[in-house]
UniProtKB/TrEMBL annotation:
It is found in: Cytoplasm. GO terms for biological process: amino acid biosynthetic process; aromatic amino acid family biosynthetic process; chorismate biosynthetic process. CDD domains: EPSP_synthase. This is 3-phosphoshikimate 1-carboxyvinyltransferase.
């Protein structure tokens, strides 16, 4: 078995021995769907029941913000959470600053919700990473709708202040394919009279559209033109939401089992919404052996069990419309590429520079430290695979996806890796390292 230790200063020490990964795992609930279930539940009339919720730092931030806004949310657990909604437009003015922690989704979607709470004042902040992330992408179209929002750096960085206003519908051509931008505008549009239209250059994840329809909003989607239209105002009714496992968390095991010889893992109950399965398309193109079993629809979202066996991977090219379909999986795909034969080219991914860390720089720097041949480009990476990696001291930059990606690289490196600041993994996958200890 690999030796995996967690030191008191949040370092993961990983000494691998090539042990195959075998077994059946259930990854935690989808983060995007969990945020949305809490938010729509808080705004809806009546009670929302959520099964399978992700209990991670980011979803705890969303729950804390909506509790501060007056919603009654039971203790968070993956089994059964109830949200007593306040009804549309009835969120309360909180007595203190709302803190979104590390979560971009919480802050950006909240901006859309709060902008429309007429007459109430809100202040919003987050951790150092979130305070450095761009908010203008959401603030600019909300200002066009008539919102009043103030913030640092020309209203583009948190802390932000919002004074809720009656809003006007707009037609917005988003310059970026971003589910966070689209969702923030849809949440604002729920409160406005008339049709709000949002068009994106490529399709981003559509969990908001699916869940809003289920909660009773009048919304239509034109897939061919990547356009969503919402007719406001909406009356949302509390629903039951069964959250599937997060394919972005499953991605670490898909890559781990692919690159670790003689491995076979079954990942049960994983969300396979086509706006999220870019990771599968790329791994298949690289030669991965992954099959979908028991495909089904669960409260409006496609779900399957994923079986993955080790395979010889080869390099590929990733760019264009694929990027929003695998935006959070690029760090772990870079690890797959480092173990593949030939070159992998990643392009059109400049967005990664404004995630929890600058993920292009972070991936290039840390994999280079292990001996990988990685070139950092302005909008992507070139990775020459097949160069053996060695364990060393590695940094996560406080980024959950970096911590877990580096752990999978370490599992197939020689010597010992020390992954510092690894507790960041709790943002989206608190049980990750325990599961790793059990199966590696
Ligand atoms: O809407 C969401 O839940 C998310 C959308 C994506 O961000 P962008 O929409 O900004 O690309 C993704 O990176 C993030 O982890 C979650
Ligand atoms: C980018 C991410 O999340 P967020 O934008 O919500 O912080 C992520 O989970 O990788």
């Amino acid at each position: 078995m690999a030796v995996i230790q967690i030191t008191s200063n949040h370092t993961w020490q990983i000494q691998a021995d090539g042990h195959p990964l075998r077994g059946t795992l259930q990854v935690p609930g989808d983060k995007s769907i969990s945020h949305r279930a809490l938010m729509l539940g808080a705004m809806a009339e009546g009670t929302t029941h959520i099964a399978g919720l992700l209990v991670g730092e980011d979803t705890c931030s969303t729950a804390a913000c909506f509790r501060a806004l007056g919603a009654e949310i039971s203790d968070l657990n993956p089994t059964a959470v109830t949200v007593q909604g306040l009804g549309m437009g009835h969120l309360q003015e909180p007595a203190d600053v709302l803190n979104a922690g590390n979560s971009g989704t919480t802050m950006r979607l909240l901006l859309g919700v709060l902008a429309a709470q007429t007459g109430r004042f809100f202040a919003l902040t987050g951790d150092a990473s979130l305070r450095s992330r761009p908010m203008a992408r959401v603030v600019t179209p909300l200002l066009q709708m008539g919102a009043q929002i103030w913030g640092r750096q020309h209203h583009s960085r948190a802390p932000l202040a919002v004074l809720g206003q009656p809003l006007e519908p707009i037609t917005y051509y988003s310059p970026i394919a971003s589910a966070q931008v689209k969702s923030a505008l849809l949440l604002a549009a729920l409160h406005t009279e008339g049709t709000t239209i949002i068009r994106e250059p490529h399709r981003s994840r559509d969990h908001s559209e699916r869940m809003l329809q289920a909660f009773g909003a009048c919304l239509s989607v034109d897939e061919a033109t990547c356009t969503v239209s919402l007719e406001g105002p909406a009356v949302l009714k509390g629903q039951t939401v069964i959250v599937p496992g997060d394919i972005s968390s499953a991605a670490f095991w898909l890559v781990a089992a692919s690159i670790t010889p003689d491995s076979e893992l079954v990942l049960t109950n994983v969300g396979v919404n086509p706006t999220r399965t870019g990771i599968l398309d790329v791994l298949w193109a690289m030669g991965a052996k992954i099959t979908l079993e028991n495909e089904r629809l669960v409260t409006g979202e496609p779900v399957a069990d994923l079986r993955v066996r080790s395979a010889r991977l080869k390099g590929t090219r990733i760019g264009g419309e694929l990027i929003p379909r695998l935006i959070d999986e690029i760090p772990i795909l870079a690890v797959a590429a480092a173990f593949a034969e030939g070159v992998t080219e990643i392009r059109d991914a400049a967005e990664l520079r404004v995630k929890e860390s600058d993920r292009l720089k972070a991936v290039a720097t840390e994999l280079q430290k292990m001996g990988a041949q990685v070139t950092e480009l302005s909008d992507g990476l070139d990775i020459q695979g097949g160069v053996p990696l060695q364990g060393t001291h590695l940094e996560t930059y406080g980024d959950h996806r970096m911590a877990m990606s580096l752990a999978i690289a370490a599992l197939n490196a020689t010597g010992t890796s020390h992954i510092h600041n690894a507790s960041a993994a709790a943002v989206s996958y608190p049980e990750f390292v325990t599961t790793l200890q059990q199966i590696a």
